[in-house]
Amino acid sequence: MSDGGAGPAELDLRQDSLGYAIKRAQVRTYEVLFATLGPDAISPARMTALSIIGAQPGINQSALAEQLRVTRPSMVKVIDSLEGLGLVERRAIPGDRRSYSLALTEQGRRELRDMHEKTRQYEARIAERLTAQERALLISLLEKVAVSAVPPSAPELAAGKAEDQGP
Amino acid sequence: MSDGGAGPAELDLRQDSLGYAIKRAQVRTYEVLFATLGPDAISPARMTALSIIGAQPGINQSALAEQLRVTRPSMVKVIDSLEGLGLVERRAIPGDRRSYSLALTEQGRRELRDMHEKTRQYEARIAERLTAQERALLISLLEKVAVSAVPPSAPELAAGKAEDQGP
DNA sequence: TATTGTTATACTCTATAACTATA
DNA sequence: TATAGTTATAGAGTATAACAATA
User: Fold this and answer.
1) Chain D: nucleotides under 7 Å from a protein CB?
2) Closest approach of chain B CAs to the CA of A71, in angstroms?
3) A92–chain B Cβ distance below 8 A for any pair
4) Each residue of B97-120: pLDDT tens digit?
5) Does A7 have pLDDT greater than 90?
6) What residue stretches are annotated with the HTH marR-type domain (chains A, B) (predicted)?
7) Of A54, B21, B140, B151, which is least surrounded by CB within 10 A?
């Protein structure tokens, strides 16, 4: 084959690929998310951080970093920005002066409620072609993928390429 | 609520969220992908570019950029790196000296075949908890999400935050 | 004029390594 | 010694703007 082709579609990596189907859906949902939230929205990782702090007030940065799957240094910047926006507070903990207790400010709670309303629209849009049953089924099937086993030594290998967990 | 909490889990953005379920599954599949491919693998975007060039030999950079959903300047770097690795060639087109005809080299074809074998393992791993029927169902449901309508003016708003399309 | 590819530049996000303070 | 947070630095990936060559 002198034209540089690799032959028929057998070698098309996108053909019958669950991984590709997930990635494509995720890219599209992010397009819808950004369009729904508007240009001034905080990033998905920040949204999730805000949501976790709201749901688990008092959590510290290390535990939050673990849940978001980012490193501690990366977490610092996220909290810095959320604090700079007046959405989150670092509060001193009486018993342990090494760490902070993270908490939402009043403005943070307002922002979270507003985000919750906007993400309801977003959720409706990305599921517009699904019945309620299909949507629930899709979520449960995705859960099964999300708990698939990572091969040995995977965390290390994947370390440099990880992505944050976002809505 | 003086502890900074936002109330009960109603405001947990990750609760009953299709968007979050998709993102979580995608993050996990990438962990498995990187672990399966090993540390020296080319990036998912490069893999997809290679696959598209293999399936559509002669495609030019602009058309490829469109399929990968990246800008032309970004495409230049991807092709530069694939050419630097000896996997892809820019060939002159007799009729139009503005653009190149992209084609795989022999090494590029070998690389693509090798990637195809590795991604088979990867696909098996991420689907390990699914039956064949569930896997097919999941893909078809994800397709419905991937074609969900982007709200008005979405492409512009999402432009600065887009991600590449990967396997 | 429109299209293709390129360069220059900058931004966001993430990581690793080394450090300080505290336990 | 171990843990929490921080700083400094670097790398990958993406974008926009401006430009040259060609159609």
Assistant:
1) 3-8, 12-18, 21-23
2) 15
3) no
4) 999 999 999 999 999 999 999 999
5) no
6) 15-147
7) B140
Instruction: Pick the closest to residue B113 from B50, B45, B164 (CA basis).
Output: B50
Which has more pLDDT, B150 or A50? A50
Q: Residue A61 domain-assigned? A: yes
Q: What is the C-alpha to C-alpha distance for residues A66 and A76, in angstroms, rounded to an integer?
A: 13
Domain count, chain A: 1
CATH code (residue A73): 1.10.10.10
DSSP state of A147: T
Q: Which domain holds residue B129?
A: 13-146
Taking the C-alpha atoms of residue A58 and residue B5, their distance in angstroms, rounded to an integer, is 9
Q: Is B147 on the interface with A (CB under 8 A)?
A: yes
Interchain contact A93–B (C-beta under 8 A)? no
Which residues of chain B make contact with A31, given a CB cutoff of 8 A?
Answer: 150, 154-155, 158, 162
C-alpha distances in angstroms, A93 versus A12, A88, A105, B3, B157?
A: 55, 15, 17, 12, 41
Domain assignment present for residue A162? The answer is no
Q: Does the nearest atom of strand C lie within 7 Å of A79's Cβ?
A: no
What per-residue confidence (pLDDT) applies to B12?
Answer: 85
